[in-house]
Amino acid sequence: PSPTMTTSMTASSVLTNSSTIYQGPFHLHSRALGLRAQQLWLMAEILTNNDDEEIFDKSFQVSISIEGVLADHSNTEEILSEADAPNRTQHLKCKKRVCEEVMILHILWLDYTHYVFNINFYGLKEFHHRYIIRDIVFYFKTYNPAFTQMETWFRFIFVMTSFFMTFWFAYMMRKYPMSDWSIEQRWIYILLPSLLTFNDPLYPLRFFPGAIMAPLIGNFFQTTFLAAVMLSWLSQYHGLRQNDRGIVSFYLFKFVLVGLCVIPAFMLGNWQKFSSYLDPTFNYMMDPDYPLVKLWFFCAITIYFLYLLILIIKAYSDLRNMPFFDIRLRCLSIVVGTVTSIITVLALQGWGPAALQDHWACQPKIHFDTSAPFMALYGLFNFYIYILAYLFSPGGGSLHETAITKDNPAFSMINDSDEEVIYGSDEESRRPLNSHHRITTDEDL
């Protein structure tokens, strides 16, 4: 099913006097909404008679009052009065006869079956006299209840699978001391519980009225998992050729870099949700600080991928002639390349990481006939971790019951400690893997 449902209503159909189409008031009634509709966006698109090639940006104010109606129509409650609602300044960007849609409000929890909106525009009188507003189309957009039901089952299946994989991997690794684990195995041990929270076991709580913490916690879980994935890529590409992995010398810069990437994403997600709970007319894209946060994010993510590219190049230049580590490097590169390629393809189609958030749904002209991209994105991260857990899990036999030693490349790749260098002594293991230091023996003297 399509992820969203959109219904529209024109201003000409609700106005008794068409001469006030530039101002209103517009009395709008939403269709019947259930809990599985999740959220409601109200947007407006202004149509004009302008035939010029001129592109212009016009500021105007929107005043709105909201009332909620119960299913039996027995009671109407005022949610937001016009006196209490702030006059939000919106920007009308037009080209020829069509203007970009403007988001009027966003209701994060649907506590009522029907909603009644009284909307007034201010500051469009001169605009109307010059370009003639033909009509205004109001869009009501919600999640598709069929999609919500499928998403709930989809998340439940992945939560149970992640729970099973987490305990299965811990069970398989139980007979090996953690000091003997490879860096891939250690990160899988961290990523599996993070994946469990990424699938959001608290998702059904969002359907309860006023459960403000559920989406905030879900956003925190998603951000934490993506941060762990980004940090694991840096650590593994660097750690394959470096055994000295101190908190300050090895991890500190990586923590700071990944933090600079995920903090603005976390801020934007929770900023919109919490502010919409307090004021449905809030839109963070109209906030003057939004361009700065956006610039912060893109600068940080650019630095991250440049640093990751440097680590990849250095890893291949140092380890391409070391068979055991070369296999691990290729395995890591195939998985990372597959994940980034699929995300890039989805991003070009208009989804990408936006599929994990709600802001893609607030565009009335963005319509998806299928939920396959959403399912593909969630499935991608889940199967990415599952495949890694399977590849780097030890064999079924006991370490002391088999004849496998660290001279065996297959065993070395999976089960050998990164603190041990093949054929090396304890002192050598503390040196970088690409060190060409020559050991002096008695025969050389």
Automatic annotation (TrEMBL):
<protein>
    <submittedName>
        <fullName>SFRICE_024884</fullName>
    </submittedName>
</protein>
<feature type="transmembrane region" description="Helical">
    <location>
        <begin position="246"/>
        <end position="268"/>
    </location>
</feature>
<keyword id="KW-0472">Membrane</keyword>
<dbReference type="InterPro" id="IPR040416">
    <property type="entry name" value="TMEM181"/>
</dbReference>
<dbReference type="Pfam" id="PF06664">
    <property type="entry name" value="WLS-like_TM"/>
</dbReference>
<feature type="domain" description="TMEM181 GOLD">
    <location>
        <begin position="24"/>
        <end position="143"/>
    </location>
</feature>
<feature type="transmembrane region" description="Helical">
    <location>
        <begin position="329"/>
        <end position="352"/>
    </location>
</feature>
<dbReference type="GO" id="GO:0016020">
    <property type="term" value="C:membrane"/>
</dbReference>
<feature type="transmembrane region" description="Helical">
    <location>
        <begin position="295"/>
        <end position="317"/>
    </location>
</feature>
<dbReference type="InterPro" id="IPR054077">
    <property type="entry name" value="TMEM181_GOLD"/>
</dbReference>
<keyword id="KW-0812">Transmembrane</keyword>
<keyword id="KW-1133">Transmembrane helix</keyword>
<feature type="region of interest" description="Disordered">
    <location>
        <begin position="425"/>
        <end position="445"/>
    </location>
</feature>
<feature type="transmembrane region" description="Helical">
    <location>
        <begin position="372"/>
        <end position="392"/>
    </location>
</feature>
<feature type="transmembrane region" description="Helical">
    <location>
        <begin position="153"/>
        <end position="174"/>
    </location>
</feature>
<feature type="transmembrane region" description="Helical">
    <location>
        <begin position="211"/>
        <end position="234"/>
    </location>
</feature>
<dbReference type="Pfam" id="PF21885">
    <property type="entry name" value="TMEM181_GOLD"/>
</dbReference>
<feature type="domain" description="Wntless-like transmembrane">
    <location>
        <begin position="144"/>
        <end position="394"/>
    </location>
</feature>
<dbReference type="GO" id="GO:0015643">
    <property type="term" value="F:toxic substance binding"/>
</dbReference>
<dbReference type="InterPro" id="IPR047843">
    <property type="entry name" value="WLS-like_TM"/>
</dbReference>
